[in-house]
Inverse folding.
């Protein structure tokens, strides 16, 4: 059984009247990539910054790497790494100089060369931080979060604002951390990112966790099964599906048919083989964490984030 690295019970953080974090429980095991997924203002940064000893909780119990957050912050800080939200380094220092600077703050540290290699920035080592793209800057941030060779690394929205290619490059760096047995806490708005990278996910909204588990468990528990999208379906297709009693919805010329049981797909294919039926293509779509969020909150993650 893997060691428990984070143990949070009944954590609350109030800002005046607002309960930004409203009694969350969390247990993270060594070696996990654990994502906290939620829209703007959900309470992600507040929660992780309490665990990082950067903010003070209102109430609740928090143990990090076996240490009590109230009494043993010095021990915790030595053994964790942090990439803060909206990370910035020194503009007029190079990649190497920035990593050297932050490394100098710790007694125990990895070599700058090793860190540069682990985020694949060898060809940028002598470039000023200000002249890097957003994705490269985030990779410098991940390297800096690792200077003290931490067991537990917090990455607060490492991919927000990056283009798809740069996001994938940051994902590779996170995968590498996992392969080196690091425990990673990731916060994100992107359900796809949480689904792809995480062993487990907690979906957060308005200060609370509304669903937790592996992406598969969450989707099985709260998702609404599979749907077949019949693109550009004609009236005949629509009428046949309706008369067969299949649950369906017609939107913008496309027919969405719910696949309620094992026989549903075969039944649908059979119906759509009628000579008067026309459509462009059929696609089967499973539920995603985005669907779960919509179902549980009535909001889309992206809308809730904007
Ligand atoms: N220092 C503060 N003082 C007062 N309110 C705060 C403070 N920090 C955060 N809040 C409020 O607490 C709530 C949670 O904020 P938090 O930054 O934790 O959310 P988040 O999930 O990280 O959002 P985002 O995705 O935008 O980073 C928000 O309503 C925010 O306005
Ligand atoms: Mg935040």
């Amino acid at each position: 059984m893997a060691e428990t690295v984070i143990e949070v019970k009944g954590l609350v953080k109030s800002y005046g009247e607002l309960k930004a974090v409203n009694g969350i429980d969390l247990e993270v095991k060594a070696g996990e990539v654990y994502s906290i997924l939620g829209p703007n203002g959900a309470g992600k940064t507040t929660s992780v910054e309490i665990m990082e000893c950067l903010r003070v909780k209102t109430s609740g119990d928090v143990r990090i790497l076996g240490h009590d957050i109230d009494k043993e912050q010095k021990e915790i800080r030595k053994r964790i790494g942090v990439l803060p939200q909206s990370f910035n380094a020194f503009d007029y220092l190079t990649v190497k100089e920035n990593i050297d600077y932050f490394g100098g703050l710790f007694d125990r540290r990895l070599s700058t060369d090793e860190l540069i290699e682990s985020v694949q920035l060898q060809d940028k080592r002598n470039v000023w931080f200000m002249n890097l793209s957003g994705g490269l800057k985030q990779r410098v941030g991940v390297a800096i979060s690792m200077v003290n060779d931490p067991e537990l690394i917090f990455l607060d929205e490492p991919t927000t604002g990056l283009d798809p290619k740069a996001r994938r490059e940051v994902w590779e760096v996170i995968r590498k951390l996992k392969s080196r047995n690091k425990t990673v806490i990731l916060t994100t708005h992107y359900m796809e990112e949480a689904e792809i990278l995480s062993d487990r996910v907690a979906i957060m909204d308005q200060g609370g966790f509304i669903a937790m588990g592996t992406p598969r468990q969450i989707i099985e528990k709260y998702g609404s099964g599979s749907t077949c999208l019949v693109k550009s379906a004609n009236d005949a297709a629509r009428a046949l599906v309706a008369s067969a009693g299949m649950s369906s919805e017609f939107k913008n010329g496309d027919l969405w048919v719910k696949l309620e049981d094992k026989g549903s797909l075969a039944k649908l294919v059979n119906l759509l083989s009628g000579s008067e039926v026309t459509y462009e293509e059929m696609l089967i779509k499973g539920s995603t964490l985005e669907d779960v969020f919509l179902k549980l909150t009535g909001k889309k993650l992206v809308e809730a984030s904007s």
